[in-house]
Design a protein that fits this description.
Shape: rod-shaped
Strand order of the largest sheet: 5-6-2-1-8-9
Number of helices: 10
Number of strands: 10
Order of helices and strands: EEHHHEEEEEEEEHHHHHHH
Radius of gyration: 31 Å
Number of domains: 2
Largest sheet: 6 strands, mixed
Helix content: 40-55%
């Protein structure tokens, strides 16, 4: 109904029309405040109690401002900007937020029989915590336009398409009803993001990433000596970190229908090589690096489904990767504890563990390859 109000009609030069305030909430934890208003009246200090600006003691100043160019009016605004902006009240759980100036769009001087409408753009950030509210993230937001500035229509909405707005007609300095914040738009504390995505990364390996577990197990089986194992794990970690980041940031893209069968084939290849090779050579490290690139794309596919918060994108990505590494190291640690008692007899270890387990890993990888290609 608000869109049907005569607010969009051109007002006469001496009549103050209500301001249009758009409060846009973004997923990076910011609030973009766009105010369409008669800037000259704000600068001149014309009180909204006057139906006609000519009745205001500031009428002469107001009329003088209306004749200024957009650049000249911008200069006049700069002199009083801090005073004007400080009177707007954007509050999170009743705590006033700081609004910073972004830009000002002022039309050129047109028909002086009509009022000129300028666009004032401000920015605020949703607080992560409030000391007054048990350190919990803000839950509600309100808006108040100063009474002396006049009436306003406030639109609350999220930066999605289509924009579903919650609108309020506010008069005489009325505070808007509370607008409940969507939890996906509320920035989380750094520690919470770190813990959540570390756990997600770990769980993607243990217990959900059985294909990645078998690949890491294949790396471990060929040689449990620290240096060869460290070379393989480092190559794999570096590779999947590269493609995980590049894929998430949209630099590279490969269909899961291609990536997933190739990951299964990498498991087959590692298992077969374990059967015929007896030590880690340089070629093995190169192959592990190449396979790591594929696994990184697989991690990225899962992470894309889980979603990354825009306000903490890099933090979430980093700690998801940390969780993955902790999961992989856990697989290696459990594997070592399971076979360390056999390691004194390398021949028996190879016959009883390396060859049969590697053969089983390869067979599982072959089944997954067929399944992912044809089923």
């Amino acid at each position: 109904m608000l869109s049907l109000l005569p607010l969009t009609q051109m007002a006469e030069a001496h009549q103050l029309r209500p301001a249009i305030v758009n409060l846009e909430f973004t997923q990076n934890g910011s609030v973009k405040v766009h105010i369409q208003t008669n800037l000259e009246s704000l600068i001149a200090g014309v009180d909204s109690n006057h139906d006609d600006t000519d009745d205001s003691p500031q009428a002469e100043r107001y009329n003088q401002l209306r004749g200024l160019s957009s650049e000249q009016l911008k200069n006049e605004f700069d002199l009083v900007a801090e005073s004007i902006i400080s009177q707007f009240n954007l509050a999170f759980d009743s705590v006033k937020s700081d609004l910073s100036f972004v830009k000002l769009d002022i039309p050129d001087v047109g028909n002086l029989n009509k009022s000129r409408l300028s666009e004032l753009h401000l920015l605020a950030f949703i607080p992560q915590t409030h000391e007054q509210i048990d350190q919990s993230p803000a839950q509600h937001v309100t808006w108040q336009y100063p009474q002396n500035f006049g009436n306003n229509v406030a639109h609350f909405y999220y930066d999605k398409t289509p924009k579903e707005k919650t609108s309020h007609w506010l008069t005489r300095g009325t505070i808007s009803p509370q607008f409940k914040l969507n939890t996906t738009y509320i920035p989380k504390p750094f520690t919470q993001v770190a813990v959540e995505y570390t756990v997600l990364g770990f769980e993607h390996i243990v217990p959900k990433g059985i294909d990645h577990i078998l690949f890491v197990l294949g790396l471990f089986l060929l040689s449990v000596r620290l240096r060869p194992l460290l070379l393989q794990v480092t190559a794999f970690t570096l590779a999947h970190s590269i493609t995980l980041g590049l894929t998430i940031y949209g630099v590279i893209s490969l269909s899961p229908s291609v990536v997933e069968p190739l990951i299964a084939l990498s498991i087959v290849a590692v298992g077969i090589e374990n059967i015929f090779a007896k030590e880690v050579k340089a070629r093995r490290v190169v192959v592990v690096f190449l396979f790591g690139l594929l696994h990184g794309m697989g991690f990225a596919g899962v992470l894309s489904e889980l979603g990354l918060p825009e306000s903490d994108f890099a933090t979430a990505l980093l700690f998801f990767n940390v969780g993955v590494e902790v999961g992989q190291l856990s697989v290696i640690a459990v594997s070592f504890l399971s076979v360390f008692w056999l390691l004194k007899n390398q021949q028996r270890y190879r016959q009883w563990v390396v060859i049969p387990v590697s053969a089983l890993i390869s067979m599982v990888g072959l089944f997954w390859t067929y399944q992912r290609l044809f089923l």
